[in-house]
Each structure stands twice: as C-alpha cells, then as structure tokens.
Amino acid sequence: MSAFGIYVHWPYCAAICPYCDFNVYRARGAENAPLLDAIIADMEAHAQRFGRREAVSLFLGGGTPSLLRGHEIAKLIDAASRIYTLAADCEITLEANPEDHALFAEQAAAGVNRFSVGAQAFDDAALKALGRRHDAHASRRAIDVAAATGRRVSLDLIYAREGQGEAEWREELTRALELPVEHVSLYQLTIEPKTAFARRVDRGQIVPPDDEKAATLYELTQEVCEAAGFPGYEISNHARSESARALHNLLYWRSADWIGVGPGAHGRFTHAAARIATEAQARVSDYIDAVREHGVGWIEESTLTNEENADEVLLMGVRTIEGAELQRIAALRGRPVNPEALTWLSERGLIEYDNDRVRLTARGRLVANTIAAELAA
Ligand SMILES: C[S@@+](CC[C@H](N)C(=O)[O-])C[C@H]1O[C@@H](n2cnc3c(N)ncnc32)[C@H](O)[C@@H]1O
Ligand code: SF4
User: Fold this and answer.
1) Ligand 1, CB within 6 Å, residue ranges
2) Residue bearing the CA closest to ligand 2, atom 6
C-alpha cells in the first residue's frame, strides 16, 4: 500500500500578495475556532469513510498557517494523531511567513518539525514589487529563528522577476544557500490569470522576462545550487541530502495517498482498489457549512479512471530525479508509454529512460508538461 499523508489548508493571510492565486482570504479578525473545528471534523469524517492509516507526513499549508498560535497548531496535530496514527518520524511541516517568526518557538513546541519559510527574495526592492510585508532582513532573521528551534528548515524564493539580471540572481541565490537551511524551493514567477499581477501585465505595467531569459535563469539556478551542494531532485526543489527532501511533496510526485482538509484542499487516495479524488468547498463559510450539514467538507468526490490515474503518475513522476514508473503506468493504461515518443525525446536530450523509469533531463525540465503529453499520447 502507498505511503499516506495529511494536507491541511489554512486559507487566511494578513494581506493578499498580488501574484498569488492560491485559495486565500484576508484574515481581517476572522475567528479561527469554527474553522479549526470544521477541519478536525472533516478529518474524522475522512477516517470513518475511508479508514484509519498511519501518516508519514502532516503538512500545514496555506494561505498562512503560521498565523496560528502554538495551542491552535497543537490542536490540529493532536487531532491528526488521535484520528490517524502519526508515524514516529512523521514530517510535520508548517508553511511560515517571515513576519510571523515570533511564533516559531511555540509552533515548534506544539510539534512542528519542519519550517518552510516564504522568504521569496532577499532584495528589498524586489520584495516591495512582490507586495510583501517584510524586508530582506526580516527574511534572514526568520530563517535564523526557525533554525534556532532545531527543526528542519526550507526556504522558498521566487525568481525570473521583472528586470532581474543574471548576476544579481546569482549573488542573491548564492547568499541564500549560505543560510542555515537544508532545502530550497525556487519558483519562477508565474503570472496567474485573474491576479493583480495579470492585470498589471495586461496594462503593460509589468513586463516579465521572456521564455528565453527565464530558461537562462533556470539553468543558472541549477548550476549555482549544484555548486553549493543543493542538487535539484525535482523541477523547483533542491536539497542538501536525500533525507532533506520534502517527504510530503514526494507523496504528490509519487502519486501516493493523501487526504486534503480545509477550504479548497484536494485529496487523492486509494480506497477499495479505486483512486479517489476529493476537492473541498473553497469559501470558508461554505466549507464550515458543508461540514456541519454533511459531516464532510468536500464538494466533489470522484473516482479517477485508470487512464487519468496513469496520466497523473506520469506527469508528476517525470518531474523528479527518481522518474515515473513505466510498468505502473503501463499496467494502469493497459498499454505502454508511447515508445516513439520515448525514442525521439531521448534522442533530443529531453528525457532519460531505462526499463523501469523515465525522467526529464535538465533541458527537458523547461518543457515538462509538453513532454508528459507526448509520452501519454
Ligand atoms: C502557498 S504559497 C504560501 C506561502 C506563504 N504564505 C508565503 O507567502 O510565504 C507557497 C509558495 O508558492 C510560491 N508562489 C505563490 N505564488 C506564486 C507565483 N505566482 N509564482 C511563483 N511562485 C509562487 C511562493 O514561493 C510561496 O512561498
Ligand atoms: S503568497 Fe502567501 S501570504 Fe501571499 S497571499 Fe499567497 S499564501 Fe498568502
């Protein structure tokens, strides 16, 4: 049976960043207790319906779950360990905004053993342009405070920002990799539809780098990380060692099992030999009402077809250096991965494959989705 994890979505943020299209809402003095209770009831409903399992990961994501006090985090962790069993070495991650660093010690005491700090940039002008509420000094301080708790620390950066030069990014990333972190997630700025950034791009107020510039910055990123001892193990993720890899994200990339609770959360798990997909109500009040009325917070529960399941295993698996499992995909689809595509993509240096696995090369990672579509054809 696949490894199992729990994703909890906490949707509140102190302010909404202009580039973000996650399911987020301004906290504006909202009460936490009704949402915490609904999330816990939803977890229980999942367990009753689909069985109780041992979780190797509990991920508190958002939104900004670092707005939660230690006793609120403890309530979530206690509920997860009462309803499911948490493995002795369960990875318990908190997505944390730098400005919340004063709460890190109580959050660690509550049971968080991995902080994923959203530094985003170490350049004050860039942070301002991203609409962030913290400066570079606060980001560095947050990393130090997180490291001082003795827990695992990862940081997120956004690059390929407007006007970002290669030399500046090399310097910024090099300095970031000197910080006391074991893991970094480095995302190219994506202009998501319907965000404030998308409107500014439409009006010509922001001109993001073109594909060629972004590709150059991507290659530079791989080179700097490699040299600093942070090899990439997924398109956007780098770790100092194998044990520093994000176990929770590996569950996604390996198409393992996880439940998703909290507004807008998605789950994927195996139950009675079927691959179940759930999606929770996105709006906080709808989510709380759904849990009160039906016991569960999801709007949709569907069973993936074997073809859909195979496509996910392929799309997610090729992103990592482990690669996607060819036999697993063939068994699900009832036919192998497109052999012609395997040949021509590997001849062009975009993928590598053997009898067991197929994975993207560094060049292939720039066009991951197109390659997955070719292989699935
Ligand atoms: C769900 S967000 C939450 C993190 C946390 N609230 C914060 O802001 O630091 C997770 C990560 O996604 C990345 N992200 C969000 N929107 C993005 C975008 N439009 N382009 C690239 N990366 C993005 C950021 O690096 C962010 O840290
Ligand atoms: S980037 Fe983080 S803080 Fe900003 S709106 Fe998105 S989830 Fe909230």
Assistant:
1) 19-20, 22, 62, 64, 95, 97, 118, 120, 156, 158, 187, 189-190, 192
2) 20
Query: Residue 98: nearest ligand to its CA?
Result: 1
* Distance between Cα 73 and ligand 1 center (Å): 21
- Mutation test of ligand 1: which of 12, 16, 23, 95 has the most ligand atoms closer than 8 Å to its C-beta? 95
Ligand nearest to the CA of 201: 1
Question: How far is the CA of 348 from the CAs of 50, 313, 341, in angstroms?
Answer: 44, 23, 11
Mutational pocket test of ligand 1: of 25, 122, 156, 194, the residue with most ligand atoms within 8 Å of the beta carbon:
156
Residue (of 110, 182, 109, 117) closest to 146 by Cα position = 117
Give one DSSP letter per residue of 39-104, joined into a string.
Answer: HHHHHHHHHHHH---EEEEEEEEES-GGGS-HHHHHHHHHHHHHHSEEEEEEEEEEEE-GGGGGGH
Tens digit of pLDDT per residue, the chain (377 long)? 789 999 999 999 999 999 999 999 999 888 999 999 999 999 999 999 999 999 999 999 999 999 999 999 999 999 999 999 999 999 999 999 999 999 999 999 999 999 999 999 999 999 999 999 999 999 999 999 999 999 999 999 999 999 999 999 999 999 999 999 999 999 999 999 999 999 999 999 999 999 999 999 999 999 999 999 999 999 999 999 999 999 999 999 999 999 999 999 999 999 988 999 999 999 999 999 999 998 888 877 889 999 999 999 999 999 999 999 999 999 999 999 999 999 999 999 999 999 999 999 988 998 988 998 999 88
Contacts of 1 (CB under 8 A, 6+ apart): 257, 270
Count Cα neighbours of 344 within 13 Å in the Cβ-side half-sphere: 6
- Domains of the chain by start residue, with CATH: 4-251 (3.20.20.70), 307-376 (1.10.10.920)
Residue located nearest, by CA, to atom 2 of ligand 2: 63
